[in-house]
Amino acid sequence: MTGLVSAERGVGETAVVDALPEFVVVVFAAVTHLADPWFLFGLLAVGYWFAGDRLAASPRRAGATAIAAVTCAYAAVALGKAWFAVPRPPGAVGPADVPTWLPGLFSAWYETQVLSDGFGFPSGHATGGAAAYGALALLYDRAMTGRRRLLGAGVVAVAVAISRVVIEVHYAVDVLTGVLLGGVVVVVALRLAGDPRFRDSEPDLAESTNGTDRTDPTADLDPTPAFLLAAVVSVAAAGVAVANGQTSEVVEAGIGIATGVGGAVGWLLVDGDEPAVPVRIALPALAVTGALWVGAYALVDSLVVTLVATTAAVVGVVAMPAVPPLIDRVGA
């Protein structure tokens, strides 16, 4: 609904950014990678596959729920961008003002960082970063203290949000909305997954289905409802994008649908209490799922291929903990 958010929504931040030293801008161009979708989903997959009980009582449930929360976050971004359809700051469309002292290879990298197309509200990096690091801090609840985890997550999320303004691909209101949206999405996703910290009723003191204390936040998490919510929101985003003739947003929404459905299907194939995935299995699996993920984005001109590749990649990632026991049974 264009008009609710103004295309000219800056509050003077561009003048401040223009006064920053070039070195500072280059540093923030690197910081923004901390919330690139490929980096976040890679980080979440590593946690999901390898985390042990020193990080969470039910690390597989915690990891899958974190993936589901971030999937919901990107679905919300897709809907928001299609709905509001407002442009990015003028600096995002180029030409890029590349520092002359950067070597050639880094010059090309810098240019890709500071130029961006598509709609600008809300910021996908700010939303995804807040959701990912917030979910990790809440779900891997045995690492350090809760205060330190949340402080660390907040520092990274804010740094990413600032980076998007500093490299002039978003206005301040875009990233502020993104951070708030990411936080809300995490709460909703964890509540849907059954996290007792976000329920209205007191937690049951009995044992969970996998033998752990039900008072543990990760004991009975089920990410399926959050994955399905992401798919539903992505369907809504696709509908808005189609109605407005936004081809690129249709693709993004389609990827959201595939990710949500793929996550729900993948979770059906695991018990949730499997041990960490052995490295000997994880490395080739990472190569295969990574290739599917890259192919999904490389072949966006063919929406069907993109959806199939994305679904297969997500099913593979989420179902991976079930593969080692299957291999052992076949070998026996």
In short:
Helices cover 64% and strands 0% of the residues. With 332 residues, it is mainly alpha-helical. The chain crosses the membrane at residues 23-50, 62-84, 119-138, 173-193, 226-244, 250-269, 281-300, 306-327.
C-alpha geometry: globular
Radius of gyration: 20 Å
* Share in β-strands: under 5%
What is the total number of structural domains? 1
> How many β strands by DSSP?
0
Mean pLDDT over the full residue set: 90
Oligomer: single chain
Q: What is the overall number of helices?
A: 13
The unreliable regions are: none
**Separation of the first and last Cα atoms:** 59 Å
Biggest β-sheet: count, sense, barrel? none
- N-to-C SSE series? HHHHHHHHHHHHH
Amount of helix? 55-70%
Structural class: mainly alpha
GO cellular component, one term: plasma membrane
Domain Phosphatidic acid phosphatase type 2/haloperoxidase: 65-190
Protein name: Membrane-associated phospholipid phosphatase
Subcellular location: Cell membrane
Characterise this structure.
It contains 13 helices and no strands. With 332 residues, the chain is mainly α. The chain has one domain. Helix 4 (59-84) runs parallel beside helix 9 (224-243) and helix 6 (124-139) packs antiparallel against helix 7. The longest helix is centred in the N-terminal third of the chain and has 26 residues, at 59-84. The protein is globular and about 60 Å long. The N and C termini lie far apart (59 Å). The mean pLDDT is 90. It is a multi-pass membrane protein. It holds the Pfam family PAP2. The chain crosses the membrane at residues 23-50, 62-84, 119-138, 173-193, 226-244, 250-269, 281-300, 306-327. GO terms for molecular function: hydrolase activity. Residues 65-190 form the Phosphatidic acid phosphatase type 2/haloperoxidase domain.
